Amino acid sequence: MLALPRALGRCLAGPGRGGAALLGGGAGAAGSPFIQAARCYARPVRRKRKDIPSHLDDLPPTMLKKDYANVPIIDSVDDVVKRLLSLEMASQKEKMKVKTQQLVEKVRRSPMDNGSFEVQVAMLTAKIRTYEEHLQRHPKDKSNRRRMLMAVDRRRKLLGYLRRVRYDTFENTCKQLSIQYTPRPAYTRRVTKRWLVKKALCLKVYQEVRKLKAPERLKQRREWQARARAAREAAAVRSEGTPV
């Protein structure tokens, strides 16, 4: 048992003092399928990355960054400087600023509107779409998934308020930002095995109680019918005895 690991180490080391003796020479040992399999065992597997479409792909690369778009002397600078200040050389954060500004321009009430409910929904929409793309590439990122769910919940609350107060603005916001809003149900409860068993037991108890009380309910119903019949007969007798 102790000699087996030593022999295996000599085989993996290649043709030498022990490898040639065990596997029959240098050329035969180097081409052995055992050694080839052992050498290829720890080779890393290269996976192809999926081409995930981004919501930033529609931004033209020649567009200037947000901080330099309204500079007066930007038209007089060199083409190389313009290229350095354009989105072609911009980072993800700078592209997000431009995309957020585009979404805000679609729904804002006035040029000075920076904090209305529609503007907040537009900013959250840009952030949520960025989180979705990130999680498609890194599905195990729990922290960013939690941040995305918090942003989705915040946007749902804002849209719910707009739906209750200003429905026309709500419809325009959902149309401009391509949002499909689904209202929450009036009552939600997490379905568990314990809850299902308890509900089934309660239904069974309710049905058994109704079976036990069925004769009593039938007797009470017949009494009500008899009283109603007697009242109708008494009224008919009184109407017959009354002179016209």
Explain the overall architecture:
It is a single chain. The protein is an all-alpha fold and about 240 residues long. Helices cover about 65% and strands about 0% of the residues. The protein is built from 10 helices and no strands. The longest helix has about 50 residues. It is elongated. The relative contact order is 0.05. About 5% of the residues have low confidence.
- Helix/strand order: HHHHHHHHHH
Rounded to an integer in angstroms, the radius of gyration calculated over CA atoms is: 39 Å
Helix content: 55-70%
What distance lies between the first and last C-alpha atoms, to the nearest angstrom? 125 Å
Structural class: mainly alpha
Helix count, DSSP H or I runs of 4 or more residues:
10
**Beta-strand percent range:** under 5%
Q: Would you report the number of β strands? A: 0
What features would you highlight for this structure?
10 helices
List the SSEs and their pairings.
Elements: H1 3-12, H2 19-23, H3 26-30, H4 33-39, H5 79-84, H6 92-107, H7 117-137, H8 142-165, H9 167-177, H10 193-241
Compact summary:
This protein is mainly α and about 240 residues long. About 65% of the residues lie in helices and about 0% in strands.
